[in-house]
Write a structure and sequence with these properties.
2 helices, 109 residues, single chain, four-stranded mixed β-sheet, Glutaredoxin, alpha+beta
Length: 109
Amino acid sequence: MAPPYERHLFVCTNRRPDGAPRGCCASKGGEALRALFKRELDAQGVRGVRANGAGCLDACERGMAAVVYPEGVWYGPLTEADVKEVVSEHLLHGRPVERLRMQLPIKKP
């Protein structure tokens, strides 16, 4: 049996205590971002992609973060305004959105 998904989009929805020095994606809107990705995948008719909530992606200081597998393309900081472009360009047409790619490696404070 073939896997049910070709790609997984992991959106950080990790929650840290209020006042955590690095912040957290949940308080920055990660849960809403994941929901918006799910709606946009449906709106654009994208099949074979699953938008998953993820625990800590260890990039909280960079704003809302997401990663697409199996390619291993990291995005961040993301805003709700970026969702349509990521879905259309990367998840529908296979072209990562270079201007939104996270610079790696992530250096810890």
